[in-house]
């Protein structure tokens, strides 16, 4: 089946003329068109543009001038601006916004020859852990439409898991690539902060947001990351670091690799079957020559409260630009400027976004800045210091991505604390700016879950190496939902 092929296999098939770029794109468009009514994974389709681009790529292939990923069908999370395409961030506030330019990530992938078939659904302004906060309705998990796909990149995760595209882009502010990757049984990696340009990516929390690839396998993620990573002068937070060829380190032996087993990640709140699966993976790594070392990250227990002060504070500043004046949603017949501001924002934003703006504004207010925001930043430093000490002993840190498999739609919408705890294992790497990925490691009651691998700064290659070696010995990443096979 074409849709089960890896990026490398697809490129080989295109080179051998087993099918054309147009036939490849038409195949995925047909799948996406059929499945989207039930999964709600896409907000906007770009089918006609994709067909035209596929014809162009076929022409380039015929004359030998095709770029490296010519013809690969992908999708973009609807938080990335794409020139001439509606870009909503999952919000009514931007329902009428057509981007006049493309994000650097979109430009790079397009220049490499990938073809976008649409923009994927997401929690509004990336605020959520279940993809139930979108103005366009919840995304359904292709493994079971009764459960959430995770968030906020749930549309991208569902599209890749259901094989509606070969790969997709996502963003991760507190786990929004890794958590849906775990719940949908795919590979997702959040690179080091600054590794991928944020220019043209609609901001949620600027010191935490990071783009990354969502794919079927670690090898596919390495191929995408080769294109997406790199310095961008348009992004002041972009890191001037050389980009290695991530595919070249995939087959490095694991002998001598030191893997940290964080004791704080295991215990109360973690599904015992997930812990057993991770222990099984650790034994596999050990059999391949890796050394397992117990480590401690004592400040990780403070990560959730620190994150939910810092992220809303930054969101309150970033979202202040949506005022009904320059672009975006504007209320009907305002009586004056104050009424325009008030009603445009109250009508244009959803409940979760308004809640976080209020929390963030409170945390930054004159009487509470030191008590909340400053304290949260101090905790952030302690978390970063914990990781620094841990990486003096180990090369990578292993743990769960989520405390459980995907939960039922609507199960946690009235319990925000329970919802926030879904990110308990992922938030720390965002606060510290470290790279981390989630990779399929098991199934429970027909639902997948992931293994999280955290690396030191700019060590994405070693994360992908370990994940690839695991995937060579396992089939979890090859499993597909029966309904979309």
Any overview of this molecule?
With 485 residues, the protein is of the alpha/beta class. Helices cover 38% and strands 13% of the residues. It contains 15 helices and eleven strands. The chain has helices at 7-15, 21-39, 47-62, 104-111, 154-161, 178-184, 218-228, 272-287, 303-318, 337-348, 351-364, 369-390, 416-420, 427-432, 460-472, and strands spanning 42-45, 73-77, 115-120, 167-172, 187-190, 210-215, 258-262, 291-295, 396-400, 436-444, 447-455. Strands 1-3-2-4-6-5-10-11-9-7-8 form an eleven-stranded mixed sheet, sandwiched between helices. It is globular, with a radius of gyration of 21 Å. The model has no long low-confidence stretch (mean pLDDT 96).
What characteristics describe this protein?
single chain; 485 residues; alpha/beta; globular
Give the helix/strand layout.
Blueprint: H1 7-15, H2 21-39, E1 42-45, H3 47-62, E2 73-77, H4 104-111, E3 115-120, H5 154-161, E4 167-172, H6 178-184, E5 187-190, E6 210-215, H7 218-228, E7 258-262, H8 272-287, E8 291-295, H9 303-318, H10 337-348, H11 351-364, H12 369-390, E9 396-400, H13 416-420, H14 427-432, E10 436-444, E11 447-455, H15 460-472
Parallel strand pairs: 2-3, 2-4, 7-8, 7-9
Antiparallel strand pairs: 1-3, 4-6, 5-6, 5-10, 9-11, 10-11
Helix pairs in contact: 2-3, 5-6, 7-15, 9-11, 9-12
Q: List the secondary-structure elements in sequence, H or E.
A: HHEHEHEHEHEEHEHEHHHHEHHEEH
Number of helices: 15
In oligomeric terms, what are we looking at?
single chain
> How much of the polypeptide forms β-strand, as a percent range?
5-15%
Estimate the helix proportion, in percent: 25-40%
Structural class: alpha/beta
Question: In total, how many beta strands?
Answer: 11
Roughly how many Å apart are the termini?
A: 9 Å
Report the biggest beta sheet as strand number plus sense, adding barrel if it closes: 11 strands, mixed
Radius of gyration: 21 Å
Shape: globular
Strand order of the largest sheet: 1-3-2-4-6-5-10-11-9-7-8
Point out poorly predicted stretches: none
Mean pLDDT: 96
